[in-house]
Amino acid sequence: MPDVAEAQNLEWIILLGCVQLQKLNPSIGSLKKLVLLNLTYCEKLVILSNTILGLNSLKYLYVRGCSIIGSNCLLDETRNTKHLISYLSPSCPLSCLCELNLSYCNLLQIPDYIGKLHCLQSLNLEGNNFVTLPNFKDLLRLYFLNLQNCKRLKYLPDLPSRTVLPSEPFTSRFPSSILKSHLTSLKFTGLMIFGCPELVEIEQLTTKSFSWTIQIIEATYQLPFPETYMPDSIMPGSQIPSLFNNEFVNGDIENLEEYLGEEYLTVDPPPVPHDNNFIGVLCCIIFCLYNIEQIPMNFGRDHMWLHYEELNMDRSRIYPCVTRIIELLGTYSSTVYVKKFQYRWVNEQDLINLKMTHCANLTAGKRKISVIEENG
Question: What is the CATH number of domain 12-371?
Answer without folding.
Answer: 3.80.10.10
